[in-house]
Amino acid sequence: MTSATQSMDSPHETRPFRAHGHMDVVTLGDFTLGRGVFEPGWRWSEDVKPIAGTDSCQVRHTGFCVSGQMTIRFDDGEEVTVGPGDVMVAEPGHDAWVVGDEPCVLLDTGVAAYAKPA
Predict the structure, then answer these.
(1) pTM surpassing 0.70?
(2) What's the average model confidence in pLDDT over 46-51?
(3) Which of 16, 25, 37, 114 gives the lowest tally of CB atoms within 10 Å of its CB?
(4) What strand order describes the sheet that includes 79-82?
(5) Could you tell me which InterPro entries the record lists for this protein (predicted)?
């Protein structure tokens, strides 16, 4: 068995959002983990939509909220807010935004193609 490690403090890649934050990405073999730092004022439809080129986020996110809060609104109108300690799954077809004045930090396994130019 082969093992590999990489510190999130030295990510393989950092993907800046249009404004209000970035996604640090580490890929080990076929496993990709992102640490998203979503600053106050961040909103997918303003900060990532121009990068993704889709009407709503079409990535399936699976992750854990480390700090801050984020509301996710799905294309069908359902909304959920995640906060510290929450494990979440967000299926494709959503917008999202930071709630409050604290950055939202999420660890996310669904970021292999997230915030990469289309």
Answers:
(1) yes
(2) 90
(3) 16
(4) 79-82, 69-74, 94-99
(5) Cupin_2, RmlC-like_jellyroll, RmlC_Cupin_sf
